[in-house]
Batch of 2 targets.
Target 1
Amino acid sequence: MKLQATLYIPEDEENFHIDIYDEQAPDYQIAEIFKEGDKTIIDIYNNPNDTHKKLDLKELIEVLTKSYDELKK
């Protein structure tokens, strides 16, 4: 799987979001990153079930750190 990220910066807003797709299946969105209040949110999709999990950046880093620590054992 190759990933492709598209960054959107609206002209009339300071807000942005990043969509991440499977490059070989452009309709298959994997995640979206955006601002929600004062947090950066990573919304991870579980296609084809069309479910998703919202994590703020701190939560995502904690999950990745725990996973990395487990892999190092």
Note: Residues 57-72 form the longest helix (16 residues).
Target 2
Amino acid sequence: MALLDKWIALDIGAYSARFYDFSTQKQVVLKTIIAEKGSEVLGVSNQALAYLYKDLDTVQIQYPISHGRILHSIEPLIHEGLDQLHAYDSLLRPSVLVIIPSETTQRQREQWQQTCLNCGVRKVELISNLEVLQEENPCFLVHSGHSYTEIHICTYDKTIVSKTIFYAGIQIDEQIQKIVYMETGCFITKMDAAHLKEMASHAFKYKKNSLLMCYGFDERQNLHQVQIESSLLWPAFEMVSSQISLWVKHCFDSLPASLQEYFLVHGIEMSGGLADCYGTSQYIAQSISCPVLCTKRGQYDMIEALKGVKSA
């Protein structure tokens, strides 16, 4: 790597997009949401949130990433993140290191490459979740983000189990939307459901039954304040957490006894946004009687793991 190269790490998930400048160590976090009116981009991230409740007939709200795939142009989002890091201010164009799902196809890799090049970057390198998280010693990795969960079991240089399942944070959000409608008769947005999930998770962690609030639309598109007790949302957490833990147990049960004993002692490592959410790690620990190791900020695990990789 040339000494003058300016490298930015991109971790663009279905809910949040994180940008990290290796040289300045500055970080930017954006919501993965874009508001458009026809071909015009009205705003990204927090600017787009303002359109969730107005101009519903003319403004399109895009959630451009799902299951690690680009469903809609994310170029405005990348531009915004790089602009906030002042990545374009120097004479040298920035290069980007992009974290992608481990099972990304060649066609999808080319799409990520071209999307980033369209944003005026000098060079694009792709690195998978597994490449970021894998360790020299045997490791049992559960990376659970917003729209998918990866399960990897590695022994030294060999990956003996690798599985992607589509149970993660967004599935909890979808169940929350259904529960809120059944309880209140109001439709809430994906962003409001994600916000309720965070607040309910906090309540569950401290064994409280909190009254949660957001906004929702009735069947006539009138906006109302919605109130719901956190305990009513627990089935959404339980359904997704139990499914993930069943897959993790299935992978664990497929291991030879010697490896099972190793992980019973050393534990399973859980990363990603859902590691911050009450329920999943607790279900996994209970189903296998095995410690589950989470950082205090699981949603930042990927960026944290990359720090120092391309520092000047």
Note: The radius of gyration is 20 Å.
